[in-house]
């Protein structure tokens, strides 16, 4: 199996808690939301708009950090598969996933240190170089193993720590999306949003999941022990709930840019 690369600065696993890493860069837009609420498209549209206006911006995906940790665990798991040379690639991946799912947080953290899981400029690094997204972060087995890896609180604290240090490393605006960014990763962000959409519209947008599947996934995400998705009825302190049902990607972008201008008046006019 191939390996990837991450980038941020290797930190002792017993470093200070993430909440004690004060943000020196508060120019952060944190976007949470369930399935097909438009988080990724909003980040893409906002990034393009800001760059056209000459505003430095980077997209920071905590999901890519979890994928980097998973890559480190999965590669080691593959090396432990008995008789791996006689197996097909798909069977090797299948067995490696089972081993990776059983790895404990201490082992995953040691592997992440050894593989130099880091982040710079919003890009994940592994082994001292930028990871190839398609090969390393979205390669075979990652999607099947990542939920087990990300369930460990130690892994989540590690990712939060890397993300907050990355925010401070970049001299510009950070656009960060996920399911717990507003209340776990950067509760002190300058602007915090929770996007919502009706399940029927989400199903039309995704074209991959039925309405029932989307509802089930969002219910499960809100029930997570760590990093749960907030319900729009209780989004958290300072979080703006933004329904996207009747919005186009462009109208969501323009609305959020207007919210950004209220927080950072120095931004250029729309």
Q: From the helix content, strand content and strand pairing, which structural class follows? A: alpha/beta
Question: Share of helix among residues?
Answer: 40-55%
Number of domains: 1
- End-to-end Cα distance, whole Å, is 47 Å
Instruction: Name the average pLDDT.
Output: 89
Q: Count of helical segments?
A: 11
Describe, in plain words, how this protein is organized in 3D.
The protein has 270 residues and is α/β, with parallel strands linked by helices. The chain has one domain: P-loop containing nucleotide triphosphate hydrolases (Rossmann fold). 47% of the residues lie in helices and 14% in strands. The chain has 11 helices and 8 strands. It has helices spanning 39-52, 62-80, 89-101, 105-114, 133-137, 142-150, 153-169, 181-185, 199-206, 211-222, 249-263, and strands at residues 28-33, 57-61, 118-120, 123-126, 129-130, 173-178, 191-196, 239-243. The strands form 2 sheets. A 5-stranded parallel sheet has the order 2-6-1-7-8, sandwiched between helices. Strands 3-4-5 form a 3-stranded antiparallel sheet. Strand 4 (123-126) and strand 5 (129-130) form a beta hairpin. The longest helix has 19 residues, at 62-80. The radius of gyration is 19 Å and the shape is globular. The model is unreliable at 1-18 (pLDDT under 50).
